[in-house]
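Exercise 7.
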Amino acid sequence: MSQMQQAGRPRRVTYVMTLASPWVYLGHRAFLALAARYGLAIEYRPVPLGDVFSETGGLPLAKRHPARQRYRLVELQRWREKRGLPLNFEPRHPRQAITLADRCILALAEAGHDPGAFVTDASAGVWADERNMSDPAEVAASLRAAGADPQPILTAAEGEAITARYAANAAEAIGSSIFGAPTYILDGEPFWGQDRLELLEDALRSGRAPYRPD
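Solution. The predicted structure, written as tokens, is:
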């Protein structure tokens, strides 16, 4: 047990994510289970992933080499089976603007809600349930499913403060050498991809010092 845990303060993991990523959807429940096992505090940090890609060398799916696109489909099949989750590789609303729903994650946290249940429902809406999560009515439905009053959360998510913070999250991610989602950050050490959850758990179990690139 770490000194912070002994002092009654949970360890914190920063969760760089976006509902636009199928990998966030596939890993979210497993991450919540891991956080519960280790008593972690989660800082949700949704990002506009296109802004991060444009500054870190990433490409939107349509611009990736066909070999990379084909391998992605193989990986999605593997992880769909591994996680036991339904997943549409080509959802009905593939180009939906997810920014409002992403910003609701920030608004929920600011209002004192745990965003976990909303992320569970909204990400399934995108990747399994064929819902148009760019529609405020669908976002409101996910907020209600998570036990939140939709109107104040939607109002906050559309406001200047949350919009500015959402944009700042991208800049902060770029400045911290984060280039994809999900990324889980423990004591400054990034774990990129939901397939790194096992390595994150190893670090938590061992209590080792964080690894650094230098």
